[in-house]
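Subject: for your reference before the review

Hello V.,

The reviewers asked for a structural picture of the protein, and I figured it would be easier to keep everything in one thread rather than splitting it across files. Below is the amino acid sequence we used in the manuscript, unchanged from the supplementary table.
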Amino acid sequence: MTSNAVGDLSSLSRAVSHALRHEPWLYELELDEAGWVPIEDLLGALRTEKPAWAGMGEADLVYMIEQSEKKRHELRDGKIRALYGHSVPQRLSKEAAPPPAVLYHGTAPATVALIKEAGLRPMGRQYVHLSADTATAKQVGKRKAGKPVILSVRAGEAHRAGVPFYLGNDQVWLADMIGPEFIDEELDSVKAR
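And here is what came back from the structure prediction:
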């Protein structure tokens, strides 16, 4: 149960993501090597940022995470971190894990030729983001284009060839980069154009 301190959960989620993924220094936060900060430090920064959040506590963060469809944040042992999407200069360490055989990437039609030539690169983020299913990839791709193209990544084959993969959450996988030899265009997105 959330207190009245939070109000709009999407506004809180955006603020937490901004603090943990993009500009922690604006909130006077210092991420450790895995992206964790003490929950109390984050709460203090958020309370200062928005006086309406003065009564916010850890239970509000727990509620925000539970209500989120995308599971962007994680709480453990008195600390919180963003699971993926970091653009901070400091590279956050992730533990490599074997990926599913196939992962997906939603993108704008205008970038397909470049991706097929140069592969998938982080483009301002720390990692390439891949989706576990086509529905998630399409949702992500719609941020880039009204009719996104879904690329199929032969992740199992890439992993066997030495490409490291990291689990972001149950829907998101991360990689340093994916060579073009492991990328195919999904038939459904080809037909849709």
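For the response letter, the relevant points are probably these. The radius of gyration is 18 Å. The domain at 103-192 is CATH 3.20.170.30 (ADP-ribosylation fold).

Happy to draft the paragraph if you're swamped.

O.
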